[in-house]
Write a structure and sequence with these properties.
390 residues; alpha/beta; nine-stranded mixed beta sheet; three-stranded mixed beta sheet; 33% helix; 22% strand; elongated; binds adenosine-5'-diphosphate
């Protein structure tokens, strides 16, 4: 069966009329970011903020129209209330303003932005500090570290949230033993899911895993912004953001878009991974986000039978790299079967084996991060990020 094309998708959507103007939604510039991959279709429906929830039937109609096309396997229409008067959406539909061009940016460290910039509503108004957990590549234990740090903070009565920004491989719901869908908290807001004292939001609650895989930059950014702005996070001391692995453009844009107080980089001790640490540090420095430090995961192995300690890779490599680059080393976590099984079963070791030395190691890292976040804020609460329309 021939796969559907982008033009066919736009043609199907062109027949749908904007209920307010009576104009085609395509001609009216409401559709942007159309992505077609192997029969999986994604696009964004942009509506005026004031029309928000009332447009849900329109979103459904869009999905239904595209589903009827031959060769379509799945359709996801993401509704965003980002549309501004003056046809910003139109620019995008015409191919301008892709990726970062249309985006909100915010300057860290008081960097100047274009004159005449408008102030947009803050994305996370009740959140004091936002800490990113990042890694140069996948599989180094970034999410496991994020979850165990979050649970360690919750155990200290820190009000903590965990935002799974890993749109392409959301594993936080499983690691926190959360499933199902978040409830609506208001007309346009979702209530975060919660377990182990941690509020959590993940794209994994909202779409099937394979659907998010086809999203490209602009859709990912919109989903991410919605998971910050349209979620009732309430008052939080710390929001931990589990970033997608890697140091490419997507991560850089996220590091810019999320109002980060600081970042933690998780690495294994292999030389290749350490090169990525350097890239990760550079990435955050480029956007003026302070590096809170580096964690070495799968640092060494202790045989549970005989207690022999084996250093599988160049143990201590992350510590050396951190020192060489002038950033703090936060701690090392061994390669351990209990860490893996508890993490994969949604029962983090900090919660289920709090007396273990591994839980202690996570608690130490969490405690260092709380201190670093507090001193980054200077006790005055999170500095207001300057958000500008570009
Ligand atoms: P990432 O987020 O970097 O892709 P994950 O946190 O998903 O990595 O971890 C990848 C796998 O490695 C998971 O199965 C996890 O349980 C396991 N893992 C993570 N850290 C450790 C550790 N210190 N010891 C043993 N297994 C670990």
């Amino acid at each position: 069966m021939a796969s559907v094309t982008k033009d066919q998708v736009l043609a199907a959507l062109a027949d749908i009329l904007d209920p307010d103007t009576g104009q085609s939604i395509v001609a009216g510039g409401l559709i942007s970011g159309v992505v077609v991959r192997d029969g999986n279709v994604g696009f964004t429906l942009e509506v005026d903020p004031a029309r928000g929830a009332a447009m849900e039937p329109l979103r459904k109609a869009c999905e239904a129209a595209v589903e009827r096309l031959s060769g379509v396997l799945s359709v996801t229409a993401v509704m965003t209330a980002e549309r501004q008067a003056g046809g910003r959406a139109q620019d995008r539909a015409q191919g301008h303003g892709q990726a970062q061009g249309h985006a909100h940016g915010h300057a860290h460290g008081g960097q100047a932005q274009a004159a005449g910039a408008q102030q947009a509503p803050e994305l996370l108004p009740g959140v004091k500090s936002v800490i990113a957990v990042a890694s140069g590549k996948g599989g180094v234990g970034k999410s496991t570290t994020a979850v165990n740090i979050a649970t360690a903070m919750a155990a200290r009565n820190v009000r903590v949230g965990l935002l799974d920004c890993d749109i392409y491989g959301p594993s936080i719901p499983r690691m926190l033993n959360l499933s199902g869908q978040p409830e609506m908290a208001g007309e346009r807001t979702l209530r975060p899911m919660a377990n182990y004292g941690i509020k959590c939001m993940s794209i994994g609650f909202l779409v099937a895993e394979d659907t998010a895989m086809i999203w490209r930059g602009p859709m990912v950014m919109q989903a991410l912004e919605q998971m910050m702005r349209d979620v009732e996070w309430g008052a939080l001391d710390v929001l931990i953001c589990d970033l997608p692995p890697g140091t490419g453009d997507a991560q850089l844009t996220m590091a810019q878009r999320v109002p980060l107080t600081g970042a933690v980089i998780v690495s294994t001790p292999q030389d290749i991974a350490l090169l990525d640490v350097t890239r990760g540090i550079n990435m955050f420095q480029q956007v003026n986000v302070p590096i809170f430090g580096v964690v070495e995961n799968m640092s060494y192995y202790v045989c549970p039978q005989c207690g022999h300690r084996a250093e599988l890779f160049h143990h201590g490599g992350a510590r050396e790299t951190a020192h060489r680059l002038g950033v703090d080393f936060l701690g090392e976590i061994p390669l351990d079967l209990d860490i893996r099984t508890t993490s994969d079963a949604g029962r983090p070791i900090v919660v289920t084996q709090p007396e273990s030395p591994h839980a202690g190691a996570y608690r130490q890292i969490a405690s260092a991060l709380i201190d670093k976040a507090a001193s980054a804020l200077g006790g005055a609460g999170r500095p207001q990020p300057r958000i500008v329309m570009m």
